Structures are given as structure tokens and as C-alpha cells.
Amino acid sequence: MNIILYGPPGSGKTTVGHTLAAQLGRTFIDADVLIAERAGRTIPQIFAEAGEAEFRRMESEVCAELGAQNNLVIAPGGGALLSEANRRKLEKSGVVFCLRADAETLLARLSAAGDRPLLAGPNPAEKLNALLAARRTLYDSFPEQVSTVDQSPAQVSVVILERLQPHEIPLRAPGLQHDILLGYGLLERLPEILRERELTGPTLLVTDENIFRTLDAGRQKTFAHRLPSVVLPAGEQHKNLATLERLYTEFLKHGLDRNSIVIALGGGVLGDMVGFAAATFMRGVRWVNVPTTLLSMVDASLGGKTGVDLPQGKNLVGAFHPPALVISDPLVLNTLPTAERAAGMAEVIKHTLIDDAEQFAELETASAFGSAAQLARNLSVKVRVVQEDPFEKGRRATLNLGHTIGHGVEAASGYQLRHGEAIAIGLHAELLIANNLKWTPPEITERVLAVLRRFGLPTHCPGLEVAHIRQLMSADKKKSGGQLKFALPRGVGDVVWGVTVPEDMIMEALWAVTGGG
Amino acid sequence: MNIILYGPPGSGKTTVGHTLAAQLGRTFIDADVLIAERAGRTIPQIFAEAGEAEFRRMESEVCAELGAQNNLVIAPGGGALLSEANRRKLEKSGVVFCLRADAETLLARLSAAGDRPLLAGPNPAEKLNALLAARRTLYDSFPEQVSTVDQSPAQVSVVILERLQPHEIPLRAPGLQHDILLGYGLLERLPEILRERELTGPTLLVTDENIFRTLDAGRQKTFAHRLPSVVLPAGEQHKNLATLERLYTEFLKHGLDRNSIVIALGGGVLGDMVGFAAATFMRGVRWVNVPTTLLSMVDASLGGKTGVDLPQGKNLVGAFHPPALVISDPLVLNTLPTAERAAGMAEVIKHTLIDDAEQFAELETASAFGSAAQLARNLSVKVRVVQEDPFEKGRRATLNLGHTIGHGVEAASGYQLRHGEAIAIGLHAELLIANNLKWTPPEITERVLAVLRRFGLPTHCPGLEVAHIRQLMSADKKKSGGQLKFALPRGVGDVVWGVTVPEDMIMEALWAVTGGG
Q1: Mean pLDDT over all residues of chain A?
Q2: Which end of chain B is less congested by CB atoms within 10 angstroms, N or C?
């Protein structure tokens, strides 16, 4: 895994890069320096003589080259990641820390150097401000932000080194005892981690075609060559008994026995299915879950539930079979399609509503989500709730927030809406019920809707029919004793469960989110 | 369920029958009295005027009629059950207690009465002895034997009433907590038992075609009409993922949900499969196991293991999912084919070798096995062993006695040998190893072989190849760390586990049981 230091001119990429690389015993590469060396000219000379376009071409070349290498500390030029392609190449190879400082600090640092073509000439302050304004969205979009104001390079290095430490979150409940390892670059260390944790024995990695494609393209394939693997077709339509049968056959073909380890590398659908195959192969073998989506990292990979679908409904066949270990690497989120990532945010936001008002507040202003620390904090909400109520007798029902209606919305859309999108709409509708019951003031609903929208989630489903949603809600598993039980917020970080709601209030909320469709 | 009092003339069937019926508030029917009433003549008159053949015809008619009724106390004539057909009709309807007394006692009682045509004329003692000698095998063949010597009818009634009490055997181990109910007539009381034990909710009974046929023929169908049921094809070839899928579909069709109860009515194959379907439907619903074979009553229904086969091997897919209750009714054993029942005896005998020297001694002279008390005692061996070693770290391996070689024999026969037959041969071979190791004197082996043969089990497999058996043993699941571990007897009631055996001793034992094939 590479460490990429990014940020505006003067943010300290080069000085911090040198310090950090020395501490880690790695090579530091300043992309601009590399470009200048290769061109035999300074950057201002390239700009002046060949033009910015030529410089950007050289820069892309260097980004692709560095992204194909490993274990470097890299400082791309301040504008390098304006190109989506450059960004993808580097983000696939490692973690980006965006170094930040206010304009005044940046200007003071830059006045010492003279090789910044974009700020050359008169009024550098004005130019810098214009540049910062133009690039703010880009700089803000990295989950790892590091302030370098009043910090020495060594101090900044310490911060970065700390953030590189993997999080080890223990989950300890009756019948559910394992660790969750979460950190940058854990995926490429998978074989070593298994060895360190004594998860040895005949091992088979199962993934799907989508994940395999991204692996194959990047350096992460290196580890795949060291583990026998099976690639399944991707998608919920394959989460069925036929694929299960294929898995058993592959297990036997690869010589798995009772002492084996099965690794699920994929999203919730794959994890459910591989976990269930592990639960039932030879009455249960150990498995390791390596979630690759935001949704599965913060939610689906936790709790020990596994299963497959039947034509009659989702997850109708399953078992409780917790993995021996969950390994989450935030870097894999960089390869997710935007809509997929947004969908995962619904569960993230739900968790903050259940038990983390502070992270909810953070989300109200945050431009990015997905740092190891943010993920660890968010998934800890589910860990706490599961630990507190291992037998699903009480508080665990709060995790259904947004789901009572959300499942109905998801089903009514014919599963055209992603789970997370449906949950966002469900959250909206359930907040309206809470408003109606006078439990939650409308301001809370407005704040939640703002956060949902901020992260690209829908809050309405205009095409769907109220009666259809309502009917599919009734068929939902959360029903008990014939009556729908809701989890409803009383405020941010305070959710009440087991609530029955007058039928007309449910209908009213559904009318509001569908626009009366 | 009827109570049938049988035995030689003078054994007290009528007097005990009257007393017992009065105590139970039931109707007592003396078959001979019924025949005489209908004929308007005494039994001696029928014999004299119409001949014995005509009497036997009338007797069969009455047996069929009484066997179709319920809740009677019935005393068939002393020779009535010489006819297999009569016996089957009555045994399907209830439990037979065979009342016994020595010839002297019988004669003393009979001298008081004068209506016994078979003993009429001179030398009644000689005639009685001849009759007893001719019918000894028949009388001995009933598992329930009751001595009436020096006992009043009231005292005999008490003994019978005690034997009619169901046995309730608790199984208490980590993750394995349920009762085993064992008693005559429990099958027809199934719906009531479920209610009493609060095993309520949408309920579905699953059985197979063979069982369904016997049910349909007898009065036991009465309960089937009160429970929704599904009938699967019978046989291990259907214990697969396809049948599992069918089961899930039936569960949904019958409206089962998470609060449902699934009942498996059948042998080990059906119990394994239905148990696994219950284990995995909606991540696990409760199930009740109602074993209908000797093998499943004393062995397969205990321990919580469920599963289905794959084309590549048996029980490769499965789960640990103990039933909420096991209900065994010895009456269903009466409908088993003789070979099936004999096969079950292999595990019965194995249990006595592991931990019940007293019952082993009983088997050395017993002509019949299958009373509720015998079954309860025998299955308690497995219960004790499982409780003592719930995690299969130690003594539970003694249950593999006969199986290390037996599985190889079973597989080498292409599963043409029944499991129990293969285990009998395996027991033989493993005893020879124990002899060879000087652990067990050859006399023990001779005694075990005598008991196996007494109950109709094979001890050799002349058609099979030594090398083939040996190869299939290696593929067996009991292998751990590459080395075969045997459980071997050191004496009756004393089995040692985890024994490795020199290869030549294994081969020698296989040569002996195959005759060097």
C-alpha cells in the first residue's frame, strides 16, 4: 500500500513526505520532482515552454506509474488529482491524506519557494485564494484530512502514522465472539493476517466477478495469487440454492475439510451466501468475512446472520454462524460506484441516529465519509447494540429504524431501489410518523433529510403506490404477533423500539414520501 | 391405543384384563367370550361341531375387528397370535403384554375351569407341556413379559400400569437441552403432547411414503388428519438438496414462520433432512423428532446433528440443531421389516458394550428387544456419553465403536448393506483387533458375535474386497490428523477411544471378516 500526501501548494506534502518516508523506511517520491527530472527542466519551464496541457499529460503518466508500484510515500502535485483518472490510479494503490492549512499559512510557506507556476507573478494571495476556492470540493472529498497549521513535519507524521494503525474492535456476545479488524491496506495483508491469527488449514477465497475485476486490475491481485479462489457471478439474483450447491462442490474440489477456512471477499450478498455455505458445510467450518462495500462494513458483516434467498423471498433460508474474523479495508471503498457508496451511507446515518449524536453532527458538515476512524466509530454502534441485546429481545430492534417502511419501499420498487436508498426513504417516512406522534420536532427531520441528501440519498419515491408499499410491509419479517412494530427516533441518538402506530399515521407518512402515488 | 393381554391358557389374561380395564375405566374384551357369544355356542362346542379351522377363522375376524378399535383391553385366545396376520392387526393397535407362568401354576389354575378344548381329555399336564413347547418361541417374542406367578390380578395390573407410564429422559448438555419422551401410544397422542409442551404455532408434519402407508392403514392416521402433513419419497437417495428445496417450498406453502414447529416422523434419513430444513428455514425454527426405526430411536435422533448428502458423500452439508423434543413410540417398531429392526440392534448392542454390561447380559438370553424400558435404558447410554462430552473432545469417540471399519464396509458394499449390518461386521473386525492387541479375550468376541447373530445380524461380508474397504475407511470422517483412531473394547461396558492400530492388524481383521475376499 502506498501513502499519498495530497493538498494545496504549501500544505507540506514534500517536507512531511520526506519525514514520513524516513520513519517508515520507505522511498519518498515527489511527483513534480520526478516530472522535472525526466523533462530535464523545472516545472515553471515546462509550463512556460510546453504549456500546462503537456505538463498534465506527463503528470498522468507519472500517476499511472506510481499507482502501479507499492510501499511508496507519494506526493502528487497540488493539481494532480483534479483528474478523476489520476485519482483512481493512485487511490487504488493506497490511502490519500489531504494536508490542509489556511491561506495565510500556505502563502507564508510559498513565499520561501519560487517554483510555483500557478502562483507566479503579481497578487499571489489573490491567485492562491482563487485556486483554493476552485479546488475546495476536491480537497474536501478525501476522508483523511490532516491539518499542518502550527505543526512540524514530524508532528504531522505522527498523526498520519496513528491513523494508519488498524482498529481492532472486539465483538463479545453469547455465541458471537470475534474481532473486527479495520485498517488501510489490510486486504493485501490478508494471507499474513490469517497466519498471525492462526486461521490456518485448507483455505478458499470466494469473491464475485465485480470484485475480481477490480482486484485483477490493481496490485491487490498479488494476494489473490497466494490464495486459491472461486469467482461467483455477482448480484442478488445469484444468492440462491443453486449457487450454494456450486459452492459446496467448489469446497470439495479444493479439498476443504472440517478444519478449513472460507474467506468471503465481497458485499453483503456474497458474505451472506458464503457465510451460509460455511455454516452448513460439514456442519460448519470457520469463515472470514472481508466486506468490500460500505453497507457490509458497517452493517451486514456484523451480527452473525447468514443465508440465501428463495424465489418466494429474501433470506428465507439461513443460519446464525458468525465469522471467525471480519477484516475491513477502507481502500476497497474507493473502487465502489458512487451510488453504491451513497446507499451505504443510509445505514451509517441510521447508526448515528441510534447512538452517536456526535458523529451525526460531524456528518452535517462533512464532505466525505470513509476514513478508518469514521468507519470504526460507526460500526461500533452496531457492535454495542448487538452486545447489549444478543438475543434480540430488546434494544436490537432499534437497528430496524427506517427498515419497517424501508423494506416495503424496497420490495414495492421490485428491488430496483438499492437497499440503502429504500432505507433512506423509510427513515424519512418514519421520522414523519415520529413528528406526527409529537416525539420528534420537525427540525430533526429536516436535519436528517439534509444529511441524507448531502450524501446523495433519495428521500422520496414518487413512482410507488402507497397501498403496494403498505401491503409489502405487512409481509415483512419484523412483524410479530400480527402487528407492525416500529423503531422511532425521539431525537438524534435516541431511538425507541417496539412502537405500534395508528394505521392512518402510517398511510399519511407513505403518502408524504410517495407524493400520494 | 389398545392394551392386549396375551399368554398361554391359565396365565391370567381374563382375570387381569377385568381388573386392568376397571382401573383404567376401559372396556375389557375377552376374544374367546366374544366368539362364543356370536356363535351362540361354547368354544369346546365350536371345536367339536365346526372344527378348529372354523374357530380360527372366527378368531381372525374378531382380531381384525378389535384391532380396528381403540382404547380397549383385549385378551385374545391363547393361540390367536400364532397367526402372523392376527398378530399384526392387534400389534398395530396397541401394546401386547405376554403373561407368563410355569406349567405347574398354569395347570393348577386350569383345573378350576373346564372349557379349554386343547387340554380336554386325559393327561392335561402332558398336553399343556406340549402346547407350551410348541408356542414358546411365540410367547418369548414379545418384548413385554409379565410373570403372574404368586401375583394377584391387582398386582399384575400394577406392573402393567407402571410399564405403560412414558419415560421422560432429559438431555442436558451445552447447546443440547431437550427431553426424550418414550412410551407406548405416544404417536397417537402427538397433537396433545405438543400442546402440553407448549410447542404451538403453525405446525407441519413431514413423513415419508413408507411411514405414511403404515399410518394410513392403521388407526394412527387419526392424528395425521389433525396435523397438516407432507409426504416425501422414502430412501437415502432423496436426502439431498433438491428435497431440501422442496421442503422449504412446502414450509412456505403451509404458512410456516419463525414461530413454527416442524415434525419429522420417520427414520434417521428423514430426521436428518427435516432437522436440517428446520435448522436453516428462516435461520432456524423449532422441530420435533419422532423416530420410527430402532436405529433412530436409540441413536440417530440423539445428539443434534442434522444434514443432507451431496453426490460426493453423505452428510457433507449439515448443521447442529437439536430438536425441541424427541418422541419415541415403541409401537411403531412393530411395523418395521424384520431386517430393518435387526439392523437397529447393532447400535443397541454397541451401546451395551460401551456402558451397560447388565443389558448386554440380558441380550445374551433375551428373545425379544423393544420394550419401552429396554429402549429407554439403551438410549440412555448415548445420552450419558453425549452429556459427558458435549464438545466431542473425548469419550464421545466411544460411540464410534464398530464404525471406523463399519463405515468402510458400508461404503464398500455400495450401501447395499444397511448401516447396522455394516456396523455389526465392523464390531466383529474391531473386536478381532482388540483380541490381537491382547486387550480383550477371545471369549468376549464370541459372546458379542453370539448376541449379534441372535438378533439376526451378519458378522461377515464375504463378497467385499479388503483393499477396497481399507481405502474407504481412510476417506472416513473419523480420520483426524491423517491417522485412523479406533474405539476398541477392553471388555463389556469398557471401551477405549483414540487408539491407533498397526496397519497389519487392521488388514488381518479385514481378512478375517471378509474371508480374505
Answers
A1: 93
A2: C
